[in-house]
Amino acid sequence: MKAPNPSDQELIKRYISGNEAALEIIINRHKARVFSYILMVVKSTQVADDLFQDTFIKVINTLKSGTYNEEGKFIHWVMRIAHNLVIDHFRKKKRIPIKENSSEKDTFELLNLKTESIEDLMIMDQIHKDLKVLINYLPEEQKEVLMMRHFVGMSFKDIAEETDVSINTALGRMRYAILNIRRMVDEHNISLSYSY
Question: What integer pLDDT is reported at residue 121 of this predicted model?
């Protein structure tokens, strides 16, 4: 009978006790989710690779220093590190123009091509680019809740625990984030829909 997979907590204990292989198991377990999230937001494999490596360097340094706090799920902590590094990356890049590469979307809308999968991919790509830009203009607390909810897939309960606020506060921040994005969409006349 096959032994059950060790939990993240068990692997962390093993790693802290000197078992280097335990770290490799935990990275392999979560790398797809962490990398996918970073890539979805930054839209560059090279940048995503760098931020992914930086994320796990921070994880390793925190574990080795003995300052890791076991409250909450390990993956949520890792995703929060990745999220903060992504935010720092955009801060360094500063301002991005709102209508970045919008001609791709406009072209598809004019041609109304029947190749639905390509069409959808191109338009969704533009929607993600526009959304990414708008999200960067949100106040920090709203941006954090939005990223955790929609890009990391966390529940409001987990978001509340991670950010040390009540569930109602997390819900309120999400509501204001959506209202602010809608306002910016109206102001800049951006289409965040791929229906014709």
Answer: 58
